[in-house]
Amino acid sequence: MHNNNIQTEKPAANNTAWQPPVGAADKPKPPVIKTIGIILGTYVGYFLVQIIANRLIKANGYVGQFLVAVPIFVFMVAMMILIGKKKALLTNGNGFWGGLLTGGFIVYSSVMAVVQVFLNIDREKNTMEFKVPEGMSFGTEQIWCILAMLLSAGICEELMFRGIIYNTLRDAFGRNTVKGTFAAVFVSGALFGMMHFLNLTGGVPFRVVLIQVVSTMGMGIFFAAIYSRWGNLKVTMFLHFLMDICMVLPVSMQSSSDLSDSITETMDNPMKFMALPLYIGLALFVMRKSVRHEMFTYSVDDDVHEMVNAPA
After folding, report:
1. Cys-Cys link to 34, which of 12, 30, 67, 145 (CB 3.0-4.6 A)?
2. Mean pLDDT by 10-residue block, N- to C-terminus, for the chain (312 residues)?
3. Is residue 16 part of a domain?
4. Are 236 and 158 in contact (CB under 8 A)?
């Protein structure tokens, strides 16, 4: 029997009587083999579904990317239900808007990336004006681009790396501990970055892929930190989609380039290596000691009730 008399007040900073979520105190860490099996199963299932979908779906470009993402989405949802994380799909955790505010740097940098496309600065005349670049257009291809980025990157990748892999690692390292949570954040972020080596198969040059892998490792760590604190997948889905669409859409509007060309054009800059230390710094700030208790005030397990108190 679970105690349904749950306190909803925020715990005082000096609270020393932290209690884990109802049902979690007696829940043992999963066997290592189970953790490895879930993560490998997710990767293998993803690859198999993608390969089969690519063979069956004859569409190219962003249309094809969107259609291939549909069965991948179904697979990811099925995996979350199978591992007992169905609750994570719909829970609001500690809220949406607070999480969005925490990821404000992503919002700012994404918006500024779009602004720079349309901002025309004449340094000789010391003037600045917004102007649509020559040859830029918005049509059916761009609509498919938006849909493809939303489903494949924003939703499917977040279900895979934050919903499944991060939560599985947090269970293994110690969901109710700070060290376990930090370990899950950094390991899942590293796995997220390394996943982008797959872009080599799409014709993206190695130097560009290497830059992307390193920078997205940092981004994955930052997303995992935000998710750790807020427990709301919708936050990271929105931030992930916003970042990708603000990078890819302007390029697609200026040419008929596909995703591989867009990646090459936007990531071929060694300065983007600096994204790794930048995002790690932001992640550590998000998980700073004064707000760390928020990482323990929600539950994503189907058989565990919400947490009532958190460690200071």
Report:
1. 30
2. 42 44 63 96 96 91 94 98 94 95 95 85 71 81 94 97 97 94 97 92 88 95 98 97 92 72 79 94 97 91 60 40
3. no
4. yes
198 assigned to some structural domain:
yes
Domain count, the chain: 1
Q: Which two tokens stand for residue 111?
A: 């918006």
Q: Which domain holds residue 116?
A: 32-296
- Per the document, the length of the chain is 312
**Rounded to whole angstroms, how far apart are CA atoms 46 and 48?**
6
Is 294 buried (19+), middle (13-18) or exposed (0-12) by CB count in 10 A? buried
Query: How many CB atoms are closer than 10 A to CB 130?
Result: 9
Could you tell me which residues come within 8 angstroms of residue 18 by beta carbon, excluding any fewer than 6 positions away?
Answer: 11, 296, 309, 310, 311, 312
Structure tokens at 250: 């302007």
Distances (CA, A) of 148 to 112, 142, 177, 244: 22, 10, 37, 10
d(CA 51, CA 221): 28
Residue 27: inside a domain: no
Q: What type of residue sits at position 202?
A: G
Give a yes or no: residue 6 inside a domain: no
How far is the C-alpha of 60 from the C-alpha of 5, rounded, in Å? 54
Which residues does residue 119 pair with via DSSP β-bridges, in sequence order? 130
